[in-house]
Amino acid sequence: MTVLFDTNVLLDVLLKRDPHAPPTVQLFAAVEHGILRGLIAASTVPTVYYLAHKVVGARQARTHLRQLLKLFDVAPVNRAVLEDALQARFSDYEDAVIHEAARHAGAEGIVTRNGQDFRQATLRVYAPDELVRIVQTRRLSEG
Fold this sequence. Notes:
It is a single chain. It contains seven helices and five strands. The longest helix has 15 residues, at 128-142. The chain has a single domain, classed as 3-Layer(aba) Sandwich (Rossmann fold), CATH 3.40.50. Strands 3-2-1-4-5 form a five-stranded parallel β-sheet, with helices on both faces. It is globular and about 35 Å long. It has helices spanning 7-14, 21-32, 44-56, 58-71, 79-87, 93-104, 128-142; strands at 2-5, 37-41, 73-75, 109-111, 124-126. It is an alpha/beta fold and 143 residues long.
């Protein structure tokens, strides 16, 4: 299963934001072990750096980005994604860009804590704990 990780869940892990980080840490492990294919939108990378460097400093923010780029594939944000996002019926353009980057990259879903922001999504939207349960159930049925 290919899932795009929204910015908020990435920051939960990188900035150790409790109580939100633990389920996303499990999802990172699922990506690391090849159980999930994880994507991040290209536009998320500088956003994560900007926000992380304010909290943990530039050096640690760069370390976080290196880790993300090793673990996740990057969903391009190109003209087609940006134009499709303009046509999408999202109230927030940034969320539309995330959705369209995921869709164009072949993702089956998006994992986010802000599911209400993706009400117009044509892809499946998962809360982190929900996706953890799905991954665990699939592993049990396969194993």
